[in-house]
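User: Show me a protein chain along with its predicted structure.
Assistant: Here is one chain, sequence first, then structure tokens.
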Amino acid sequence: MKNHPHFDSTFWPSLIPGGLIVLLLWIIQWAQHLFVFPFYTLGVMPKTVHGLIGILTMPLIHDKLDYHHLLNNSVAFALLMSLLVYSYRSISFKVLFLSWLIGGALVWAFASNNGAYHIGISGVIYSLFGFLFASGLLRRYFPLQALSMLVVFIYGSMIWGIFPLVKHVSWEGHLAGILTGVVLAFVFRKQGPQRPKYQYEIEREMGIEPPDFEAELAKANEAETPRVPPIIVYHYRPNVPIIPLDDTTPSTPQTPE
């Protein structure tokens, strides 16, 4: 993918955006132990006015005691964000921004209000996963299709997170995220890296019919080759005596006079 104009020459610079956001997550996690302010109230409380702020801040807040969850989210987000920036550089920040906002808005609008706040960057992770998977399939470009398969191979088990199987897990946020990513893959399918087109595809789009070389060659050969009348050759057989079918005696050949 290095030779494609949409791809960075190296992968390492693509780690910077995701790394900076992960660093911010850990700074906020550390700040929760320094200040009395209840940071969890910056999450999304569905269908409430004060929960609207969570559309912007929900991905930045995690349970201050659940470092295992934050660590898993940090690794997944850093990797998927790096793959997004490397493979879809020109639209990567659009995808991240819309994933951040639309996923949170869907949780606020459609999740059930049971008095709990929805926090964590998992919804954004699911959106990046859905985008990388669906976009590679829609573009029909082998490097991006290979990336789709790689993402599924690494994080394919995430699909179970969109079902209400585990308590105290925002499955609505996961579902909203993956749906957002798939929709964004469809919306941006004409932007970013595309499958290189063959010459005949470009000419077909321009309305140029490809030349029929075989027909032209046949016409040229026909024009250059003179038409020769057919030659009829007659073959004569000598006189042969006729032997009746019911005559079993041999007959002596007669010599014509």
